[in-house]
Task: structure prediction
Amino acid sequence: MRFLLAAAVALLAFGSTNNLACAQATPAAVQGDFIGTLGPLSLKLHIKAATDGTLSGAIDSPNQGAYGIPCADFRIEGQTLSFKVPAVNGSWTGSIENNGATLSGTWSQGAPMPLVFTRDVFVPAEKPSRVDGIWLGTALVNGQPLRTQIVVKSDNTGREFCTVDSPDLNLFEIPCANVVFSEDRFSLELPSTQGRWSGTLSSDGNELTGTWTQANGTPPAMELNLKRQAQRVGPVAPPPVTYIPRIDPVSAADMESVLRRDLAKTFSAGLLVSGKPTGVAVGVVRNGERRIFTFGTAKADAVFEIGSITKTFTGLMLAQMIEQGNVQPETPVRELLPKDTVAKPQGAEINLLDLVTQHSGLPRLPDNMKPADPNNPYADYRAENLYQFLGKHGVAKPDKPAFLYSNLGFGLLGQALANRADTRYPELLKRLVLDPLKLSDTAVELSPDQQRRFIAGHSAALQPVHSWELDSLAGAGAIRSTADDMLKYLEANLAPKRADGSISGALARSHKPLANVAPDKRIAYAWVYETKSGSYWHNGGTGGFSSYAFFNPKGNYAAIVLVNVAVSGRGSFADQLGQHIAERFAGKPAVSLENW
Result:
C-alpha cells in the first residue's frame, strides 16, 4: 500500500539534544513500539528482534489510514540504525539514543525531513477511569462546523493521556498535555495549537460539557460539548498515487492547455471548483519561451508567500557574499554573531557551508519559540531569542553531520549574513539578489500596491488564515513574490552567464552540489539536485500557502507553482502540480492530479 509522507511545515516541532553511547547497540535495544510525527502526520513504528538478532518491523500512518506497512533492511552499525520502507520508496537513518528510548534521524522520500521516534511505554490501566473512551463533538469555526474527537486512556498508575483528532481536516492523533481528571472535572491542553479544553463529565458518564479556549484569547472561547462514542471516526485513506500516460515533451506555449485537460476533474469536483477560494499561479519557461497563467481565484499579478523557497534566496545571498570576499564558506557562524553570544566549542564548529547545505546538526526549530499568536508563529521570535537559544545549545558540529532539514539553521544563516553586512535581512536581500536580478515584485515587507495584490491564504480546510511574518528567522521563509518574478528568478538560474555580471558568479556557485541528501539526491546552496533528471528544486509551505519551484539546465526548462492553500495531511497540491509539469516537460508518465 502506497502512502505519501508529505513535506510539510512543522510549526512547533522542537529538536532535542543527543545523548549517544559509544558501544555497539544491540537489536534488543530497539525492539518495541515507537511513536513519532512527520509534519502533520502521526507515525507508529513497530520493531521485532528474532532470537538470532534479525530485525523486522512495520510502520503505521493513522492519519492516512495506513497500517502495517512492512519495513526492510534493518541495519545497526555502532549507534546508527537504518531501515527502508519499500512500499513507499522511503528510508530512515538515525542514531539510537538514551539506551533505545529515542531514535533520532531523517526520513527520506522526496524531500528529506527530520523524524524522531520515542519509545511508547504506555501500560494501560486494568480498570479504565470514568472518562476513558472516545468522545466526539462539533464546534463552529469561522462559521463552518468542524468535528473534534478526543480519545482518552489511563495507565496503570492512574495518569490520564489523550489525543485529539479533527476528522474534517483529516488530522489525527495530535498529542495532548496536562491531562487532568478529578472528580467530574476534565481538562487537557493541546501544545501544537496552544489550545485548552475544560469541562465536566455528566453523572451518567456519557457527555462532556465544556469550553475550548486559546492561550492568547484569539479567537474567543467557544462551546465544545462531546458525547461518548462506541467507535472512533477514522481517517480517510488518501488515494494511491497513480500516473497517466506520457505524451511528447510539452512546450511552454502548450502547457496551460495540457494542464487544463489534466486538471479536468479538479475543476469539476476538487480544489478548483468554482466558488472555492483556491488560487493557483503558474509560470513556465522552455528554450526562452515563457508563459504565466492562473487557475481559480488567482490573478496573474497576485502576490503569494513562497515559504521555504526563500532558503534558495538566502543561499544565493551567501554565494554573493563569498564572491564579494565578505565571508568564506568555512567561516564559523559564531564569528558573525554579537560578541559573547555563544562560546567557541572545543572541537569542530558550525560554519556557513554547514548551514546552507542543511548539515549543521541544528534542530528543525529552536525550543524557545513561544508565539503569542499560534496563527503567526514566527512573528515575535526576535534576534535576542535566537541568541539566547544558541548560547544554551552551542555551535558544536556533530562528528559526522547528516542531512537534517532545519528552519532554524537557515534563519540563523540569514541573520548572520545581515549582521556581517550591518543591515537587516530584507535590505540585504534587496541589495544582493533582488536588485541585480531586477525582481521588483519580490519582498519580505510589501509595498501598499503589493499588499493590495496579496492573495488571501487558506488552511487545508480552505479556511482563511493569518499571513506569516518572520523576524530573526526570515532567511528560512519570509519572502513573498509573484509568478512572473519567480519565473525571472528561475530563468537566471537556468542561465547564470546571461545574468547581470554582478551576480552571475554567485548563481553558478550556488548550483554546485556539495553534500548528500538521499540516494540520487544532493544539495547545493539550499537547492536539492536530482542526479538522474538533472533538475534542481525546492518547495515551500506556510500556514496558508504552498509552493514548488524547479529548473533543469540540461532540458532548458523551469517552472514555479504558487498556491494559496496550505499543505494538508495528504500532501501538497503545489508539489504534485510542479512534479506533473516537470514530467510533461520531460515527456514522461505524469503523476495524476485527478484526486485533487
Remarks:
- The chain has three domains: 27-118, 133-229, 243-591.
- Residues 1-22 have pLDDT under 50 and may be disordered.
